[in-house]
Design brief:
The chain has about 160 residues and is an alpha+beta fold. The protein contains 6 helices and 5 strands. The strands form 2 sheets. Strands 4-3-5 form a 3-stranded mixed sheet, with no helix packed on it. Strands 1-2 form a two-stranded antiparallel sheet. The protein binds zinc ion (ZN).
């Protein structure tokens, strides 16, 4: 998040600073730091696939065989609470998790629900480009704009999920 290095997600592996950062963020949010929560964060941090809770569970139990799906759900909720991860919900009630901290857009496969990052720069002025008056008009109706999300819908032709 705060690093000024290149924006790639290449820094794999548990950097020693991760633990301090995760512990601090969890405690700030009033959540306990646990080894399970750290393992869930580490997996999410290196995954590029925006996994579901079930997928996180399948991956993390390779290292922590005793972890339960319920613990993974609670860990994910704690990470969201601590703003270390975002929960991407869908109309059908399914959710995926993302711990990339900067604003970015998503591609969503409408058949499988799979989500990937859109390789494009985030434009903070996009709403103004849609309509220069939009933010002011919404404010006048009693809605304060704090941000926006964008998902591009379609099909991943290379996807093996189905
Ligand atoms: Zn993402």
């Amino acid at each position: 998040m705060g690093n000024s290095n290149s924006h790639t997600l290449a820094s794999a592996g548990a950097a020693p600073s991760n633990e301090t950062m995760v512990r601090h963020a969890l405690e700030q949010a009033g959540c306990r730091y646990t080894a399970q929560r750290a393992a869930v964060f580490d997996f999410l941090d290196q995954a590029k696939s925006h996994p579901t809770a079930e997928e996180v569970y399948q991956a993390v139990r390779q290292q922590l065989p005793k972890i339960s799906l319920a613990t993974v759900y609670k860990a994910l909720e704690a990470l969201v609470e601590a703003r270390l991860a975002a929960k991407l919900t869908n109309g059908d009630g399914s959710a995926r998790y993302d711990c990339r901290g900067d604003d970015h857009y998503h591609l969503r496969d409408v058949a499988t629900g799979e989500i990937r990052d859109l390789p494009a720069d985030f434009d903070p002025q996009l709403l103004t480009k849609i309509d220069p008056e939009l933010v002011a008009r919404l404010a006048a109706t009693g809605f304060e704009v704090t941000g926006y999300r964008l998902e591009v819908l379609g099909h991943f032709l290379d996807s093996h999920e189905s």
